[in-house]
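FW: tagging you since you asked about this chain on Friday. Here's the raw sequence from the shared folder, copied in full. Didn't touch anything.
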Amino acid sequence: MLLAIDQGTTATTCLVVDETGEPIGRASREFGQHFPRPGWVEHDLAEIWAVTRAVADEALADAGVAEAELDGIGITNQRETICVWDPATGEPLHRAIVWQDRRTAARCDELRSAGYEPLVRERTGLVLDPYFSATKIEWLLRHVDGLAQRAREGRAVFGTVDAWIAYQLTGELVTDASNASRTLLYDIRRGAWDEELCDLFGVPVRALPEVRPSAGEVGRTAAGVPVAGIAGDQQAALFGQACLEPGLGKNTYGTGSFVLLNAGTRTPPAPQGLLTTVAWRIGGNTMYALEASIFVTGAAVQWLRDGLGIIGQASDTEALAASLAGNDGVYFVPALTGLGSPHWDPYARGTIVGLTRGTGRAHLARATLEAIAYQAVDAIEAMEAVGAPRLTALKADGAATANRWLMQFQADVLGVPVVVPEVADTTALGAALLAGVGIGMWTLDGVQRGWRERERYEPAMDEARRRELLDGWHRALERVAGDR
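HL: got it, structure written out here
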């Protein structure tokens, strides 16, 4: 039996998976979001661990399995979010700064103007954007009293959320290559922290976790269970979707949406608007991926619920969208935390266009779902524009795959089938599969053979209508460019 911990941006989900790869227990719970200033997003580390521990216990209870019966644990996590704590006591030294946080946008501008972008792109495959971890760490070092000295003395450590969870489980300070590759501090070709980049951001290398393979034991819990799989959530989803060969890709619909294409064992160049990242490292082999990161998709639905109060739950959007024959020219660009791939504009802000007196909550719900699909089309077309093979089908996972209207609309505007796997919690499943590979329960061939399709959505929209909708979306995009 394996326990998978999926520590996401708004909730933690845990799965218990048996030796055949079937989920036999599940639990999930949301946790608090903190917005101390406009554009700032933080999480309480103590709450994250408390919720994770509680949800893990609930999933084990749901499966009727005791912790001591587990063969291994896999961790997957919201990426780029940075945590800081005392390695001796485990005490958090500041709230986690979340990947959505934009407080370091001006600092990224400074670094770009100073000519550091080519260095960052070449070493890390990323761009200078507040999305990534390094400028968040730099901000903490500059603004939290005494933290810089503590870090130099080894009394403060920084890590992504996987490192925080692994530390709580095992007492070890470790991360994996996929998470390290999202920090702007890791040389993805050499497979090591880059001292020049660490110096650029003022980060002591000794304050960073040890980078381990994505599959393989990194430590044991108090009950003696090995933690044997770690990967960032999008890489875990790529693994869980069995995209193990070059050219296979997926889109995960979560708080944001993330399109990843397996690029093989050679580091591909990072084209404009896209990222090159480590998919996973298993044994001595590193697999890379081409990635498009879309910041706000599911978070826009959450905003409809929590910010505007026009829906009671996310599933309400399906019936509301279906109640309209069309969008009546209403488009929502959900740049609530800037725009990610392929635009990379941290200053863009959310915009709704096409409002009339006849516009109602159904239009806003539909516009939000349509925006999720349009952004995926932009990402995939950007990949194809730089030579990626045209997708014959899009593997889709994440909570929004339960929305049948959205999945059909995605197939319609993309023009290829959208395929949903049998196990909806693909991110958590990927963590479990990595842990299973890490303890020798499964081989990579076994992971490939075990993937199963649940549902397929065939495109049904004519090309003229598809282009008309996408043209309207692109006109709406032109109105959100931020002022620097």
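FW: Residues 2-233 form a domain with the Nucleotidyltransferase; domain 5 fold (CATH 3.30.420.40).
HL: agreed, and The chain is about 35% helix and 25% strand.
FW: great, closing this out.
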